[in-house]
Structures are given as structure tokens and as C-alpha cells.
Design goal:
Layout (H helix, E strand, L loop, with lengths): L5 H4 L5 E5 L2 E5 L3 E7 L5 E7 L12 H20 L10 H20 L1 H11 L2 H8 L3 H17 L19 H18 L5 H24 L4 H18 L5 H20 L1
Antiparallel strand pairs: 1-2, 2-3, 3-4
Helix pairs in contact: 2-8, 3-4, 3-5, 4-7, 6-10, 7-8
């Protein structure tokens, strides 16, 4: 569905993040979350999103701003909903992340251009590992189904596909490509790039990937857009999402109802 579709324009633009026991949904001005507690009950919370004004029309900056706002929301969710279990809230996942970071650093120092590609690939492992345990992949499916049901006017969240065109998995390929290209360019200019230069490349590659993500959404029917998003859909099908059960879908419905309620009130 393209941005010019009138049915799309009439809908709120929603995003989300799967939790280990529920779902966080972002609206234009608010966030809402629903989780199933250890006691089996569904608990919801919502609040206003922090926003950085004046950057929506600035390429590069706007993407970083929106990602930053999404990160700032996470502690707000934990404060309002202590029962929420975050995707990386697991000792084993943190261990894999630390190991991937160390391995990536070694590869970058010793293996040249191929090492950059390998290091970028290894960087994806913590997220994939997190999705393999618990209910995170199912709630990722809930996220896609609940938002798609709203966008498509489906009768129920169980009906849409568990893969979604705006999933963050579509950032993986452009972010890896831009990060490798930026790092190689930096090394051709500086003999020993420092931490600040490396951080600059990371920010620039993220900004570029978000712009590519947005371009793909605006040109969803083009062959290039389909090619760029093919790895993201493959990740979603293989490991990123699993079909949720009715209990998990119930949590998704609660989160969707809460975000629509607070956005309407706003």
C-alpha cells in the first residue's frame, strides 16, 4: 500500500515493538503497551511520546530522531508497566551480544573488507538469538497482525499475515551495506580511525538505512524496493515471527485498543 492510497491516509500510522510477554505500540503522539502478567492477567499502560520538533522534513536527521524517540519510550514503558519484559532482558541474550561485539571487533582489525562484511553479519546474531527463546517471536507476529488488521480493516488480528512491510527487519540489508561502505571509506581516509569516527559512521549508516526504508515504502511496487526488502521478509518468515496463539492475540488486541483510545482522546 502506497502513501497516496486514501485508505492509508485515513489511518493512524502505527509502529510497534514486541515484548517478551506483550506488545508496545507507537502512535503519532502516544505509546501504549499491554502485557500478560505471570498471574495470567492482561495489564495495559499508555503515555505521551517525546517528540523532537522541526526535523520531519530533514533527510537523515528525521530517521535518527524517530529511532531516538522510540528508545526513550522504553524506560517510560517500564516505569508505567513494571511487568513488561523487554526483548533483551535476558542474561543469555546479553552474553551473545557481548560475544558478537568482541568477535566483530576482532574481524574488523584482522580481515580487511571481508571482515567488515562478516562483522556486520555477526552483529545481527543477538537479535536473532533473542527471537529464538520464549514468546518474543510470537509477540512479534502479534505486532504485525494487530497493526495490519487495523490498517486493512480486517475483522480480527488473526486474519492478516504475520509478516509486515514496515518491519524493522527491512533495515538489516541497507544498514549492513551502508555500514560496510562507510567503514571502508573511513579506513581509506584515516589510517587508524578513532571511536568518534566509528560512531559517526554508525550514525550515518543508520540514517541512510532509514531513508532507504522510507523510499521502499513510498515505492513499494518497484522492482528495486522488492529486492531490498526481500531479505527482511525472509528473516521474518524464518526466525523473526511465529504464528501467535489466541492468548497472545488477546494481548495484541488490548494494546491496539489502548493506543486507539489515547490517540483519539488526544
Amino acid at each position: 500500500m502506497t502513501d497516496t492510497d486514501p485508505s492509508r491516509e485515513a489511518k493512524l500510522r502505527l509502529g510497534g515493538m514486541a515484548l517478551r510477554n506483550g506488545l508496545l505500540v507507537h502512535g503519532p503522539t502516544h505509546w501504549a503497551a499491554a502485557v500478560r502478567t505471570d498471574a495470567g492477567e492482561i495489564t495495559t499502560a499508555s503515555g505521551k511520546k517525546p517528540r523532537l520538533p522541526g526535523v520531519d522534513d530533514v533527510p537523515g536527521i528525521r530517521g535518527l530522531a524517530r529511532l531516538g524517540e522510540a528508545m526513550v519510550v522504553i524506560p517510560l514503558v517500564k516505569r508505567a508497566l513494571p511487568e513488561a519484559k523487554l526483548p533483551f532482558q535476558d542474561v543469555s541474550v546479553l552474553g551473545v551480544a557481548a560475544g558478537a561485539s568482541l568477535a566483530g571487533a576482532v574481524l574488523r582489525k584482522r580481515s580487511g573488507p571481508l571482515g567488515e562484511v562478516a562483522a556486520a553479519s555477526i552483529g545481527v546474531l543477538p537479535a536473532l538469538f533473542a527471537l529464538r527463546g520464549g514468546e518474543l517471536a510470537e509477540y512479534h507476529g502479534v505486532e504485525h497482525k494487530a497493526i495490519a488488521a487495523y490498517e486493512q480493516d480486517a475483522e480480527d488480528a488473526r486474519d492478516p499475515a504475520k509478516e509486515h512491510e514496515r518491519c524493522g527487519s527491512h533495515l538489516v540489508a541497507p544498514m549492513m551495506a551502508s555500514n560496510v561502505a562507510g567503514t571502508l571509506l573511513l579506513r581509506s581516509v584515516l589510517v587508524k580511525p578513532g571511536a568518534a569516527a566509528g560512531a559517526g559512521v554508525a550514525l550515518a549508516s543508520t540514517a541512510a538505512a532509514v531513508e532507504v526504508f522510507g523510499w521502499c515504502e513510498r515505492h513499494a511496487d518497484s522492482a528495486l524496493s522488492r529486492a531490498i526488502r526481500r531479505p527482511g521478509f525472509a528473516i521474518q518468515r524464518a526466525v523473526g515471527t511465529r504464528e501467535p496463539d489466541e492468548r497472545q492475540l488477546e494481548v495484541g488486541r488490548a494494546a491496539l485498543a489502548e493506543i486507539l483510545r489515547v490517540e483519539e482522546a488526544a
